[in-house]
Design a protein that fits this description.
It is built from 4 helices and 11 strands, in the order αββββαββββαβββα. The protein is of the alpha+beta class. It has a single domain (1-186), classed as Nucleoside Triphosphate Pyrophosphohydrolase (Alpha-Beta Complex), CATH 3.90.79.10. Strands 1, 2, 3, 4, 5, 6, 7 and 8 form an 8-stranded mixed sheet that branches. A 3-stranded antiparallel sheet has the order 9-10-11. β9 (150-156) and β10 (159-168) form a beta hairpin. This is CoA pyrophosphatase. Keywords: Hydrolase, Magnesium, Manganese, Metal-binding. Its cofactor is Mn(2+); Mg(2+). It holds the Pfam family NUDIX.
Length: 189
Amino acid sequence: MDKDELLTRFQLRALSRYHSSPLTPAKLRAAAVLIALEPGLQGPELILTQRPKHLKAHPGQVSFPGGKPEAEDQNLIMTALREAEEEIGLAPDNVEIIGQLPNHPTFTGFEITPVLGWVKSPFEAKIDPAEVQELFRVPLAFLLEEENRHTAMFERRGHFYPVTFIPYRRHFIWGATAAIIDMLCRQLR
């Protein structure tokens, strides 16, 4: 799949259904993430990060670059772009915004806005060690294969809810990140 096919698939196919966690709190805090795709040797690759283990929130988990909005952010797209620049050194002017996926509420109290972007030119990652332990890429073709995305039911506070997970090499992608990847893949299928 090249960039043009990705754009066509993203723009023409609406998600048929979207499930949120039954444990989503009533009041949610806004956040935005950048689903950054870049050309790879065998098609588009998704940029992901692993959070450092010393962090209080979600230590060691795989995530997209992103976070909470700040006063200077004009909108949540700008939040996602600013966070990507801060965390991995991806300049906002090097990203072509393709669009947004539906917001993803979490049981940890966030409403995540996933912003899909295409990295225009190769960039040298500048990782902020306070927020990112590692940057890695996953081929979109791998993620699009349904057998590589798994869902299991887990119980939390007496309620059962689906949790998506994606094992990839030595990484274990799960939770909101995996759910957003699954949503993107369903959109592109």
